[in-house]
Amino acid sequence: MANYLYKLGKWAENHKKKVIGGTIGILIIIAIAALSLGPSFSEDMSIPGTESAQAGKILEKEFQTSKEPTPGTVNLVLKAPKNQTLESKEVVDGINQTLDEIKKDKSVVSVATPAELGNFNENKQIGYVVVTYDVPANKVTEKSKEIILDSIEETRDAGIQTELAGTVAFSELEIGGITEVIGVVIAFVILAITFTSFLAAGMPIITAVVGLGMGILAILIGTNYLDIPSFALSLAAMLGLAVGIDYALFIISRFRQELSKGHSLQEAVAIANGTAGSAVVFAGLTVIVALLGLAVAKIPFLTMMGISAAICVLFAIFIAVIFVPAILGVMGDKIGPSRKNKFLERLTNKRKRNESSKWGDIVTKRPWTVTILGVLVLIIVSIPFFHMQLGLPDNGTKSKETTERRAYDLLSEAYGPGYHSSLVILAKTDKNSGDIQQKINEVTEELGELSNVDSVSPPIPNKSGNIYMISITPKTGPNDIETNDLVHSIRELSDKLTNKDQLELLVTGSTAVNIDISKKVNDALPLFASLIVGFAFVLLVLVFRSILVPLKAVLGFLLSLGATLGFVVFVIQDGNLINLFGFPTESPVLAFLPVIVIGILFGLAMDYEVFLVSRMREEFTHSKDAKKAILAGLKDSGGVVTAAGLIMVSVFTGFMLAPDPIIKSMGFALTFGIVFDAFIVRMAIVPAVMTLMGKAAWYIPSWMDKILPNIDVEGTTIQTEVAEEKNTNNKKYSNLVKEGRMSE
Fold this sequence. Notes:
Elements: H1 2-14, H2 16-37, H3 51-63, E1 73-79, H4 89-103, E2 108-112, H5 114-117, E3 126-133, H6 142-157, E4 161-166, H7 178-195, H8 198-222, H9 230-260, H10 265-292, H11 300-331, H12 342-348, H13 358-365, H14 367-382, E5 390-391, H15 403-415, E6 423-429, H16 436-449, E7 453-456, E8 460-461, E9 467-474, H17 481-501, E10 503-508, H18 510-544, H19 548-573, H20 578-581, E11 589-590, H21 593-623, H22 626-636, H23 638-656, H24 661-693, H25 702-707, H26 716-743
Parallel strand pairs: 5-11
Antiparallel strand pairs: 1-3, 1-4, 2-3, 6-9, 6-10, 7-9, 8-9
Helix pairs in contact: 1-10, 1-11, 2-8, 2-11, 4-6, 7-8, 7-23, 8-9, 8-11, 9-10, 9-11, 9-23, 9-24, 10-11, 10-21, 10-26, 13-22, 14-19, 14-24, 18-19, 18-21, 19-21, 19-24, 21-22, 21-24, 22-24, 23-24
């Protein structure tokens, strides 16, 4: 692989103008296609085959009066001023003026007031208006939304608190906000310090943005043909930007090293692409495999998230090994090691050391201390993981700055927290199984007697009379354990009734969907984690031709994974330090977050393992000195890995600061996943353990060594080819000189 990438790098440098022009051309073509089609995201988070999904389909088939798509609705949740009610004349007049403005929108089919709907709370201070449109929620135009937002200012000015709920979203998901920009700015500062050059620091960011642009636009095109959720775009952007910067960093760093050794510009580009580029391709493909592995869970929206993120990583790889070499060919010595910024050089105060770095000396001199402290910290942080509770975010987990969250709180105040966790029960029975109505009435009574039930609606039959719909309002909210227990109790009751009265109860609703998704994810976790760990071990055995090095890498990954999920539970679920990290309230861990963390953290962990340990193996192959190999790895690759980890942290932190709870929790988990894995596991525990293992770290049975293919991530074959090419050129030069002498 290294040899092919060496030749690719040389070709890209030779044809730099065509490569750069072609890349920009492809980006423009993809952009035109994406803009012409427009985005069409799917927000369906159901899982085919689960009881809640099955019940949802039956509900839609048997009780939906129209075959047309469900129209979008906006609920105006109203709270009267102090000492007044929603029936007070001044309040009613203010509401009617607002509704008159809303009715002017031709897309509005109907507007129903709280009085017409009879949804006042006990003291008649809170109620809600329902505005119904002639199109589905995702088709409601921005103009219609603006009319709503402008109109409710009148009621707010009149002292009537007015918030928005319903199926039409007003707090849209945003990509590329100020928080993400902050992350990129921090990444630029880290790169500037790493390269001691502002110009060189800008290169990885520019190339990463080009690759990210291609990936994001390709995903937008894909939304027209696949059911891709909107938050998949954020995950893809987050990961694509981070790896894009890191991959360019590795290649540019190696390019500068080769220039400092006296290689020509073209040769330095080719060698960098063949060596660092090999590690980039290997690491990137590892991330892609891990992301595609999310399909193991057999959850459609999770599979689409993995595919979307994998597309961005794939573009990042292509840009790194094709576009970056071309850019290096253009920039040349302008970003070479000799072009150092004097201010940054003084700021970094870099001191050259012959064989080791200061951190390398500390780790190799105190390996037991570093190992024990590192492992102990990660184990302690992992402890909260064992009481992790999974769920899906709702408006109650959003920031109080959003109108949806304020509407959620008003509805909870008016009708109790169970208003948001209502359950729909479908009672299926056989017409030939006796007195159906009596059985349904008995079941309704039994449901009302279950623990944590606030109210039960009268059963409503379908046209054929064999299915009845019953609505239940729990006493607790959608993410409370008591609500989950109620769903399980209903399903247990169904098992008894099926055997006794040939009557089946199917539960659906957001709470039931949450439970089914969480169960599906929990069932998939062991298999997915096993596949990932097994894949990592085999992969690293092939790369490092060792047994203990891959084993150590896998165990380190499990430690960092446990610490990451433990810290997520400690903060997000248990509510510790939530103000520090900007979470509005404690909530269950995002149901699919553990699977995502396993997939992405595995890929990134293997990135750092390959970049760090491949340099150690390269040194050990030549010197056969285990300690010297560790010191060389930390000295030559440790700084780059540290910079790469900091860049990842800065990019993920930018997303962690976003207001959307899904994006925020993913950014938070990946930020601390990198902190634990890159800095504690890879930069501390890995070299410390390898010091303790000595030469045994590189042991591999001779029979295995013979049958394993030579992947050559270190680029050994390139060095041979470069040496042979130099010898050939020297001979040609000597022959020309001789021929010249002969002609003389």
